[in-house]
Amino acid sequence: MLAKHNIDPIYDQNSKILILGSFPSVKSREAQFFYHHPQNRFWKVLAALYHHTPLMTIEEKKSFLIHHHIAVWDVIQSCDIQGSSDSSIQHVVVNDIATLLKQTQIAHIYTNGKKAHQLYMKYCYPQAKLLDICLPSTSPANAAYSLEKLCDQWQQITQLNNID
Fold this sequence. Notes:
The protein has one domain: Uracil-DNA glycosylase-like domain (Uracil-DNA Glycosylase, subunit E), CATH 3.40.470.10. It starts with a strand and ends with a helix. Helix content is 35%, strand content 20%. With 164 residues, it is of the alpha/beta class. The strands form 2 sheets. A 4-stranded parallel sheet has the order 3-2-6-7.
């Protein structure tokens, strides 16, 4: 079933890193906000890495990202997908990542999971010309990674983006 991305990227001209997912989950599309599924650990990981209180509201999350110079978006603009299953993605139309990069100070791209990495390399890298670093997915489907293990792997975003 054709699904369209309905969430604007979060960034400003001071953004220094970009975190890319593949495509929003059903819950995220319903809420029109990134990583909105309660079992997704994205916001828990970021709060832990930056020693921040839990991020609860959409406005708190947006403010947190802008404050820490983090941009968030997804590789895919529209696709055929069954539910939230990355493995079912077909007929991909990608977002214009290269233009986003030109409007910011982004020097590092992190992909949230292998599917986002594969899609980025196939469709976006030829225009963006900036290699990504693939991080383990924060999705609840990635049960092999505990929150602690995710934080260990994701820690590198704070090392390159060393801004409080």
